[in-house]
Amino acid sequence: VGIRPNTALAESMRLYCNRGIVVNDTMQTVTDARIYSVGECAAHRGIAYGLVAPLFEQAKVAANHLAQFGIGRYMGSLTSTKLKVTGIDLFSAGEFMGGEGCEEIVMSDPFGGVYKKLVIKDDKLIGACLYGDTVDGSWYFKLLRDGRSVSDIREKLMFGESNIGDVGHEGHSSAATMPDEAEVCGCNGVSKGTICKAIKDKGLFTLDEVKKHTKASASCGSCTGLVEQILMFTAGGDYSAAPKKKAICGCTDASHKDVRDAIRAQKYLTHAEVYEGLGWRTPNGCATCRPAVNYYLISTWPKEAKDDPQSRFVNERSHANIQKDGTYSVIPRMWGGHTTPDELRRIADAADKYKIPTVKVTGGQRIDLLGVKKEDLAGVWKDIGMPSGFAYGKSLRTVKTCVGSEWCRFGTQDSTQMGKDLEHALWAMYSPHKVKLAVSGCPRNCAEAGI
Ligand SMILES: Cc1cc2nc3c(=O)[nH]c(=O)nc-3n(C[C@H](O)[C@H](O)[C@H](O)COP(=O)(O)OP(=O)(O)OC[C@H]3O[C@@H](n4cnc5c(N)ncnc54)[C@H](O)[C@@H]3O)c2cc1C
Ligand code: SF4
Description:
Elements (H helix, E strand, L loop, with lengths): L7 H5 L8 E3 L18 E3 L7 H15 L13 E3 L7 E5 L8 E7 L4 E8 L2 E8 L5 H10 L7 H4 L7 H5 L4 H4 L5 E3 L4 E2 H11 L4 H8 L9 H12 L20 H11 L4 H7 L11 H12 L13 H5 L2 E2 L5 E3 L10 H13 L4 E4 L5 E6 L4 H8 L11 E6 L13 H12 L8 E5 L12
Parallel strand pairs: 1-2, 14-15
Antiparallel strand pairs: 3-4, 4-7, 5-6, 6-7, 8-9, 10-11, 11-13, 12-13
Helix pairs in contact: 7-9, 10-12
The protein binds flavin-adenine dinucleotide (FAD) and iron/sulfur cluster (SF4).
The site of iron/sulfur cluster has 13 residues, from loops.
């Protein structure tokens, strides 16, 4: 798992390597004291660190030693890391696996999607692993680094910094004690001061409103807990917790889940049955609920429920994307971004023949023919002779790939082939929303497969 340092150069010089180039506490290689090694390529006391913070500490020790400013020793680093993937809040720090002589405090709520584990040894916090609610990650990491005894706050430790009362934080939540310039949302660069100002000036009371006005918590969502805390103490009694249930649209009070459950439980097969059964306020739904209900009916009862073309968007009906001037855009599929000279010639010939004004390479590694007249659509598709890219559908659009291990010197996996396999497997599926995927061949993530 992870990245392995390339030690070929060091090994060719006969420097001793295991996980990396083996160094002592002054970052000198154990083979030759004249040679230093710091960073991801160095192995210190059996650990090769893969984060920036320990590497800075190593560099400081090496620099001091080289400049002969006394002998500082590198004793290893405590590290914490937060997964930066949308929708997955995961934080870990220190020795979160525990072990001999360790005590573990665990809170597990599989239904609510929250798991927290704290590892304590000799009354000190030595490790933490948080999933689902990572708002206290930096506080736990501070306790870990400070190495202070947690015996006085042990009972409340699991419930986070805002719950330790007067014992540790003078009764304030961490949000209240943060300075205004402190960054809350790293994705969108939003500070606490900006959020508080928006709450006061614009009279915001809900998380959704704060997201809309400031963009805080609107991307990866890992700061949601903190934004809610700020909202709570700034808006005070006016704060309204985000409603747990959101109606599909104004036609009904039913949520998406209510509709799915009812279709399954009551075996509804038509729009009319759903609207009547769930007390819709409009006779035929609207542009928001109709496509959703259509999808839920077909996906729940694929053999019995019938697709309703009127509940599909115009783009899906005409197999092309309508543009603002009324012309269409045609995007043929290029599996994994691969094409051939023959396909490119056919695209070029069609563009000439139908006088298509714009040919554009899309952000999803395909070719877009823009400005196609409605009456030419069938001819264009026939002449190109390629499968549809479904660039207009509630379906799989692109699977973006990097060149991966076949070509790239960093690649550890064949990302292009995996992208093609995924694209073939999911091609032409009907989904509730457009779906775009990406596959990268290593953590450098050139295909931007995660956020
Ligand atoms: C996708 C990705 C995301 C990451 N995200 C984070 C993060 O959020 N937080 C964090 O703390 N860390 C993160 N890391 C890890 C962090 O980037 C690395 O730990 C850090 O950059 C390593 O620094 P380094 O100086 O040891 O090595 P590098 O930054 O890899 O520098 C090594 C340099 O040596 C050069 N080199 C290699 N061979 C030779 C040679 N033979 N001759 C001359 N030069 C050579 C290379 O070109 C390179 O410039 C991430 C890493 C990746 C890949
Ligand atoms: S993600 Fe980038 S560096 Fe990694 S294999 Fe793909 S192209 Fe190469």
